[in-house]
Amino acid sequence: MEHLLLEKQLKAVADLNRIKLLACMKNGEVCVCDFVDVLGISQPAVSQHLRKLKEAGIVTERKVGTWKHYRLVEDQTPLMIGILQQIQPMGSCQCKTSCTN
Amino acid sequence: MEHLLLEKQLKAVADLNRIKLLACMKNGEVCVCDFVDVLGISQPAVSQHLRKLKEAGIVTERKVGTWKHYRLVEDQTPLMIGILQQIQPMGSCQCKTSCTN
DNA sequence: TCATTATATAATAATTTACTTATATATAAA
DNA sequence: TTTATATATAAGTAAATTATTATATAATGA
Q1: Which strands form B30-31's sheet, in the order they lie side by side?
Q2: In a domain, B96, yes or no
Q3: What's this model's pTM, rounded to 2 decimal places?
Q4: Keywords for this entry (chains A, B) (predicted)?
C-alpha cells in the first residue's frame, strides 16, 4: 500500500471519537442523532468526524427522510480489515427515536 | 483491543515520516544518522519521532558506540502486525558511514 | 584533557486538528 | 405556506502536534 494512502486511512482512525463511531457501526447502521448521545460532543463535531471517515473510504451513508444512517463500507482495504478486527463493538448505539427505518 | 490503547498505537503510526521510518526498518536495523538523510528533516525531529514509536512499543534500540541503531520489536501486537504488512519496505536506508557495526 | 561527533532533551514557533457557535439546507408536518 | 427537526457547512478558537534552534549528554580520538 502506498505510504500516502496508508497515512490517510491511519489518520482517519487515529482518534478516540472516530474509533467509537466505528465501534458503534460494527453492529450495523447508526444514525447521526445517536452518535451525538454516545460521544457527548456537539452535532457538528460528529458530522465532521463522519466526513473524515467517509473521505477515507471507510464509511458510507444512506438518507432516510431527514435522517442519515452511516455504516461501514462492505469492501474495506486489507489495512482496514485488520484494524476493524481490533475494535471492540459498542452496544447501545441503536436508534432510540423514530429514525429506525 | 481497548479503545484507548488502540488509539495510542494508531496515533504513533498515523504520520508520513513515522511510516517512512518503519518502512526503512523493515529491512533491519537502521541508525539515526541515516534516517535524517532519508526524511530530510532535522536530527531532533527524527529523534522525537523515534521516541514516539518506542513509547508505543513498536521499535527498540541498540547502542553501538556513539551511534544508535533502531529496529522493529520482535513481538508486535496483532494490530501492528497487520499494519506493518501494509507498509512497503524502503531500500537505501543502509548506513553509509562507519556506523555499520 | 580537550575537541569532535552522534544522539537526546528543552524551549519555542509553526502547523494541523478538533472543538465550539452560528448559519444553511433539506425534509416533514402543521 | 410556515414551523420544526436532522444534518451539513462555515467561521472562529482552543488544543494538540510537528517542526525548528539551542543546549545537554555521552562516547571517541587527538
Answers
A1: B30-31, B67-72, B59-64
A2: no
A3: 0.92
A4: DNA-binding, Transcription, Transcription regulation
Among candidates B72, B86, B48, which has minimal Cα distance to A7? B86
Q: Where are the beta strands (DSSP E) in chain A?
A: 30-31, 59-64, 67-72
On whether the CB atoms of residues A70 and A59 are closer than 8 A, the answer is yes
Cβ–Cβ below 8 Å for A13 and B10: yes
Structural domain count, chain B: 1
Nearest C-alpha in B relative to A20:
B3
CA B65 – CA B70 distance, rounded (Å): 14
Per-residue flag: B51 CB under 7 A of strand D: no
Q: What is the pLDDT of residues A6-63, one digit of tens each?
A: 999 999 999 999 999 999 999 999 999 999 989 999 999 999 999 999 999 999 999 9
Query: What is the extent of the structural domain holding A39?
Result: 3-86
- Using CB atoms, pick whichever of A2, A3, A86 lies closest to residue B79: A86
DSSP-based three-state secondary structure for A58: coil
Query: β-strands B67-72, B30-31: how paired?
Result: antiparallel
